[in-house]
Amino acid sequence: MDFTIHQTFLPHNDPEASLAFYRDNLGFEVRNDVGSGTMRWITVGPAGQPGTSVVLHPPAVTPGITEEERRTILEMMAKGTYASMIVATADLDGAFARLRDGGAEVVQEPTEQPWGIRDCAFRDPAGNMIRVNELS
């Protein structure tokens, strides 16, 4: 089988802050922006990779989620433990500087991990963990 990642979903609680992070800091293209206020679904993706998209969505709006589950999701988002994404770049130090200088919350500076990957980590405005791996 031959699979590619077409879309993945990350929650947001401030569409403008999330848009600025993904568009201005990560350099992703905005592909779609529907809804209004905090109820917006914003599709972004890496430039030059039209087949790969990240849909930034309002949290806990899926039909069938209970109030208790909704509270848990929002609590986990606030702690930064609900969702994550790993991206990769050939220029880890440059990416780190761009994200840090753009105001992203630094979780970990570039580090050589024991499992052989050099990476760093940030949180997006909703608390999602964004790890950046260095391509070798």
What's the arrangement of secondary structure elements?
Layout: E1 7-11, H1 15-25, E2 29-36, E3 39-45, E4 53-57, H2 67-79, E5 84-89, H3 92-101, E6 105-112, E7 118-123, E8 129-134
Parallel strand pairs: 1-4, 5-8
Antiparallel strand pairs: 2-3, 3-4, 6-7, 7-8
Total of helices: 3
> What is the approximate shape?
globular
Strand order of the largest sheet: 1-4-3-2
- Which structural class do the helices and strands define? alpha/beta
Largest sheet: 4 strands, mixed
Q: What is the tally of beta strands? A: 8
Low-confidence stretches: none
Radius of gyration: 15 Å
The helix content, as a percent range, equals 25-40%
Distance between the termini: 26 Å
Q: Report the mean per-residue pLDDT as an integer.
A: 94
- Residues in β-strands, percent: 35-45%
- What is the succession of H and E elements? EHEEEHEHEEE
